[in-house]
Amino acid sequence: DVYGSFEDEETAVPMSMSNGQADIDFYTSTVAGTAGVSGSMLGFDPSTVEITLLPNETYELELSSESSVLPSGETTEVIVKAYDAYGNFVYTDSSTSVIFRVTELTEPHGAVNETEVTLAEGTGSITVTADDLTGPINIVATGETGGERTALSGILTIDTVLEVEGISFADIEPQVLFGALLGAPFGEVTQ
C-alpha cells in the first residue's frame, strides 16, 4: 500500500489471537496521511481501524505568491509552507521561525514588510511591496529551529513593473532626449 505494509505485503498476514487480541508490525512508508488497516476472522465481522501517519520534520520551505508580477507601489502576500524530505506538507510544524530578506541586488525594486514569522500548522505569510522601479524582487526565506539556522530555505522571484504614461516622461529622472516603449508611438521627450 502507499502508506506502508505488514511483514509480507504480497499476501494476507495470518496471526494468532490470544485473549481476544492480536499484534502485528506495520511498516510505514514515506507518505503521510491516513491509512486504513482491516482485519477479519471467521465468525466475526471484519473491522477497520484508521492510522494517521504524520509527516517527518521540516526539511524544506516553499514560497508562493498570489501574483508573479507586481505593479510599482502595490503590495502582495507571500505564503511560506513547510515540507519534509519526502514532499509531505508538515502541518504539525508550529515552531520553525522563518526569516525573510530581499537579495541585495534586488533591494531597489521592493522590500519585505515583515522579516520574521513563526510557522503555524506548517504555514506562514508576509507581505512584499514594490518600489518605483521595474525589475525582480528575489525573496529568500531561511528557517531557524531552536535558535539555530538550518538548511531550510526557499526562494521566490516577483517581477515589479513601473507603468508610465506619455505625460509621465517629464517626471522621470534622469531626463532623456529620446524614449521608446514597445508598441507605443513615443519619440522625442523634452521639458
Describe what is shown at a glance.
By secondary structure, the chain is an all-beta fold. The chain is built from no helices and 13 strands. The strands form four sheets. It has a five-stranded mixed sheet, with no helix packed on it.
Topology of this structure?
Blueprint: E1 4-5, E2 27-28, E3 33-39, E4 47-53, E5 60-65, E6 69-71, E7 75-83, E8 97-102, E9 110-112, E10 116-118, E11 123-130, E12 135-145, E13 148-161
Parallel strand pairs: 6-13
Antiparallel strand pairs: 1-2, 3-4, 5-7, 7-11, 8-10, 8-12, 9-11, 12-13
Notable characteristics:
mainly beta; 13 strands; disordered C terminus; 191 residues; elongated
Description:
The protein has 191 residues and is mainly beta. It contains no helices and 13 strands. It has a five-stranded mixed β-sheet, with no helix packed on it. Strands 5-7-11-9 form a four-stranded antiparallel β-sheet, with no helix packed on it. A hairpin with a 7-residue loop joins strand 3 (33-39) and strand 4 (47-53).
